Amino acid sequence: MQTRQNCRISRISRISPCRIPALVFALLALTGTARAELDTLLLANFDDKVVKQPIGTGGAAVGEPIILWNSLGIVRPADATFPTPYLSLKDTVQSGTTNNAGYDFEFLNDESVNANSGDTLIFDFDFVFSDDDTTYLSIMPAISVGWTRYLMIMSVPQANTVWLYDRFGGLLWAQGYTPGVPIHFEVVFQMSDLSFDVYLDGNHVVLGASTGGLNVGRFRLDQRVGDADTLGYPLLDNLVVTVLRNQTTVDVADGRPVLAPELLASPNPSRGAVQFEWAAGSGALAPVAATQSLTIYDIRGRLVRTVLHGAPGRSSAQWDGRNESGARVAPGVYFSRFESGGRAATKRISIVR
Q: Which of 59, 97, 100, 158 has its CA 20 to 30 A from that of 22?
């Protein structure tokens, strides 16, 4: 990793954190025996792009795809579909010709996240499927690795259904779909057991599906086209890819290991409140003597709630599932961070409805 002007820059994604909204810089400084780092690998929200103009192919560093084929990616202004600028796919194939069109976003530059580790890779995006052509969304290996689809999301015209398939072609889930309506997707890959979960509009629809291996590095859209589409389908906004990296180190004081805090959360997933318990690191849930804090962040690293600050000696606290304004948070993936005595622990939690 390298640092410039107090901004952390990912060696893998080369995204300047100065471009990342309120990114979890507090989470990037975790220390202790077990520490976690939340890095944003790709941020493509199109807010800084020129509307009504084709998007470039500059890659993750500038929030753009690395390639488009048989298509133009046109940035649309905010409207009733999305409240901020978004990306639409316009076919450039000849009318009446069956072909594929689409784009690839790549974010790991042919490097893999740590398979069989405690790392967690998270995709977060909003999408509107085409009502003209068959559309495939895929999470895949990096370009140079191969064509395996770890997860394929498919929609067919007039079928009014969205299907989710695993890499072996097994149907994971299906849902009726109204063309033109945005769907919010969150896909969470857990490296410890090479599995993934899928949330649609906050609903936990796929639990623990197998990847059959892991070298995720690409987000792809394929559209099987039979004619030139009107501008506006399919539509993509707020594509964010983050990785929560768990690493193991050892701190030593007076010749003895200093253990990091242990953080537990229950229930997880939760439909409302979440109960947290923590320990000094001995394995027993005993109070931590130092000053403590417990904070909740959303998937983009924005502070949602400060649950606890100060109060040494406590060993538990409850988050009521609300933000600082008292409103219930939207369903989705969140991160809790417990700090005490210069050490910290992070836990991923899911809110479902």
A: 59
Query: Are 185 and 123 a contacting pair, CB within 8 Å?
Result: yes
Residue 204 β-bridge partners: 199
Place of tokens 């901020």: 84
Q: Do residues 177 and 281 share a domain?
A: no
Give the three-class secondary structure for 87. strand
Alpha-carbon distance of 190 to 210, in angstroms, equals 10
The tens digit of pLDDT for each residue in 272-316 reads: 899 999 876 544 444 556 678 899 988 777 889 999 887 777 788
User: Range of 81's domain?
Assistant: 2-246
Domain boundary residue, one of 209, 224, 246: 246
DSSP letter (8 states) at residue 327: P
Query: What digits encode the pLDDT tens for the residues 191-234?
Result: 777 788 898 887 889 988 887 666 678 889 988 765 555 545 78
Q: Give CA–CA dist 100/107, Å, rounded.
A: 22
**Model confidence pLDDT, tens digit, residues 17-26:** 333 333 333 3
What is the residue-averaged pLDDT of the chain?
Answer: 76
CA–CA dist 193, 169 (Å, integer): 20
* Overall domain count for the chain: 2
| CA dist list (Å): 190 to 47, 123, 169, 245 | 30, 12, 20, 11
Count other C-beta atoms under 10 Å from residue 127's C-beta.
21
pLDDT score, position 114: 57
pLDDT in tens, 149-174: 888 999 887 788 999 999 888 999 99
Q: If we measure between CA atoms, which residue out of 299, 311, 300, 319 comes closest to residue 339? A: 311
Interatomic CA distance for residues 255 and 235, integer angstroms: 57
Which of 349, 340, 347, 345 is CA-nearest to residue 314? Answer: 340
Contacts of 56 (CB under 8 A, 6+ apart): 62, 64
d(CA 185, CA 123) in angstroms, rounded, equals: 8
* Residues 45, 47: Cα–Cα separation, whole Å: 6
